[in-house]
Specification:
heterodimer; A: mainly alpha; 17 helices; B: alpha+beta; three-stranded mixed β-sheet; three-stranded antiparallel β-sheet; 8 helices; elongated
Chain lengths: 422, 185
């Protein structure tokens, strides 16, 4: 099973062995960069397809079906369309900044892939300050959004850009705070170190971990401007927000940056809280066997489902026991599950108002993030008695979340009295 | 509890998501959750929607038995009443001495053109016609590449038999036929 797990690493090793020793570090860099540069657009293309398919199904539609089987060639035809469209720069716009902004937004999105641990030994650059790098790089998108909005010379663009900057800066704070707990527990900023620290237990199964995971994920959703936090590009209010005046391939670059960043958010949530490329440490094959027994004996279910379900559970348990699933498959499965959640959120919720959005960041996430650090501390200091620590930190978090909701509850509106109309 | 409404909302969309797949419907049925077929899209060029009988798109000229036995007498009321002025009639036909030419005891139009790209499907021409000579068709796949060559229908293209009318709109045709029979007596 080791071969399947390390298949990409071994392939790279074989490729490197073809070159003289002096060249190998450079070839290694070139290969990593080349692979990332090749798969990033591919990931983005099929994320758009995935999003359109899932959102369509949630709205009782089919989604793309015409181009290729299940519309699988749709992203390619979209790409060709974008390439051959006219590139319009509005009169009075700043042409240099206008073309620089989408490039500046795409570059950090691809740079984020450098510290993404796709699997065991599958990371382009295992920086010892990986987490710092993540936050430093992902903050650049606020510059590019404002640059794009400003350079377009359009009031919709500038409004969207202003909203975008306010939102991104606000949500960076809870985003960073939610990760502080992880740094406290693992004692490292390296992505590989964080993943390896979760070998015994994914952080999402601890009280501070679930809160941190939700906060990091939702702040990430807000930071990459996706529904329900897509204030900077609110179609119904701002036409297209900061990319109103963009067309053709420049527009596609904006979208590429957005989709790659949302993929990165899912990937880093997986890395930081969902165990990265680790399979669940819990002996899940026991659970699988248990479920097989439960499904097989469940009298409420119809007979075919019972037999098929029991067989599936049994198969899963055997698979689990033998550990055939490679690490990169775990990572991609978890990441794409989070991508599904991202699209699911988009399919369910309407856009927040600006004040609600800011209120969520400053009045709820920020204090909860601070409490979360305390809770993680409690959990860590009581690690000798795990259950007690677990319950103590859960109680602290639940109480403070409840208190925050109570404190933030808006006053009920009184019946309005009309002074002049009566 | 906090956030329960959020989860309930997500449950609704996830149920809709499952309902669009056969396996999803099977899963929901197995869990004893009432389901419907979630997909409501009619994939148009492959599948056509069943239209109601009174669905109308564009007028046509009715003839009885043979194409020269058309009901239109070229009175031009429809041409005058047409709000977007898309009907163009030349006629009634004259013989060499300038007297009205007749076919089957009626005058008839020389040219009868309707610009279908201008027509707004209002059915006023049908309402004003004293002879029930013009009726609404339900054909809607009329696109073409040539604005005046294909979008302007002449008399040949507009003429359709009464049988066709009876076939596409049985109820309306029965009323019209009854009215015409009463007039003949």
């Amino acid at each position: 099973m080791q071969e399947l797990d390390q298949v990409f690493v071994n392939a790279k090793g074989w490729l490197l062995s073809l070159f003289p020793i002096g060249l190998r570090p450079w070839v290694s860099i070139a290969v990593s960069v080349g692979v990332i540069a090749a798969i990033a657009p591919f990931i983005m293309m099929y994320l758009t397809w995935l999003e359109r398919k899932i959102i369509a199904r949630m709205q009782n539609r089919f989604g793309p079906t015409r181009v290729g089987v299940y519309g699988l060639l749709q992203p390619i035809s979209d790409g060709i369309k974008m390439l051959i469209k006219e590139d319009i720069v509005p009169r009075g716009a700043d042409p240099l900044l206008h073309i620089l902004a989408p490039i500046l937004s795409l570059a950090p999105a691809i740079l984020l892939f450098a510290v993404m641990p796709f699997g065991r030994n599958m990371i382009a650059a295992d920086l010892n300050v990986g987490l710092l790098y993540l936050f430093a790089i992902s903050s650049i998108s606020s510059y590019s959004i404002f640059m794009g909005g400003w350079a377009s010379r359009s009031k919709f663009s500038i409004l969207g850009a202003m909203r975008g900057v306010a939102q991104i800066i606000s949500y960076e704070v809870p985003g960073v705070l939610s990760v502080v707990a992880v740094i406290m527990i693992t004692g490292t900023l390296s992505m590989v170190g964080i993943v390896e620290a979760q070998a015994d237990q994914w952080f999402v199964f601890t009280p501070w971990g679930i809160v941190g995971c939700l906060m990091f994920f939702l702040s990430g959703v807000a930071e990459v401007n996706r529904t329900p936090f897509d204030m900077p590009e609110a179609e119904s209010e701002l036409v297209g927000g900061f990319h109103t005046e963009y067309s053709g391939m420049k527009f596609a670059l904006w979208y590429m940056a957005e989709f790659l960043e949302s993929f990165a958010i899912c990937a880093f949530t997986t890395t930081l809280f969902l165990g990265g490329w680790q399979g669940p440490a819990v002996p899940f094959w026991v659970l699988g066997l248990l479920l097989a027994v439960i499904v097989a004996t469940g009298t409420k279910l119809p007979a075919p489902i019972r037999s098929v379900g029991a067989a599936a559970m049994l198969g899963a348990a055997v698979l689990w026991r033998t550990q055939v699933i490679p690490s990169w498959a775990w990572f991609l499965a978890k990441t794409y599950a989070l991508v599904f959640v991202l699209v699911w959120l988009r399919g369910t919720f309407p856009r927040l108002r600006v004040d609600q959005l800011m209120g969520l960041a400053w009045k709820f996430f920020l204090p909860l993030g601070l409490v979360n650090i305390v809770a993680a501390g409690i959990w860590w200091s009581l690690r000798e008695t795990p259950w007690f620590g677990w319950i103590a930190s859960a109680v602290v978090l639940a109480l403070s979340a409840w208190a925050l909701v109570l404190a933030n509850k808006p006053e009920p509106l009184q019946p309005r009295t009309y002074i002049y109309a009566d | 509890m906090i956030g329960i409404g959020v989860l309930r909302g997500m449950g609704v969309t996830f149920k809709t998501f499952l309902e669009t797949y056969p396996w999803g419907r099977g899963l929901l049925r197995a869990l004893r959750i009432p389901t419907t077929n979630g997909l409501v899209t009619v994939e148009y060029p492959d599948v056509k929607q069943q239209h109601h009988e009174r669905f109308r798109y564009f007028p046509f000229l009715v003839y009885d038995q043979t194409p020269d036995n058309l009901r239109c007498v070229a009175c031009k009321i429809c041409e005058q009443e047409c709000p977007p002025a898309c009907i163009h009639i030349i006629g009634p036909a004259k013989d060499e001495q300038g007297r009205p030419a007749k076919a089957h005891g009626r005058t008839y139009p020389v040219e009868f053109d309707i610009d279908i790209s201008v027509c707004m499907s209002c059915r006023i021409c049908v309402d004003v016609c004293p002879f029930d000579a013009i009726e609404m068709d339900n054909q809607y796949e009329l696109s073409g590449f040539d604005r005046f060559g294909q979008m302007v229908f002449n008399k040949d293209k507009l003429l359709k038999p009464n049988d066709y009318f009876q076939r596409i709109k049985p109820t309306e045709a029965a009323t019209v036929d009854a009215r015409l029979a009463a007039k003949k007596k």
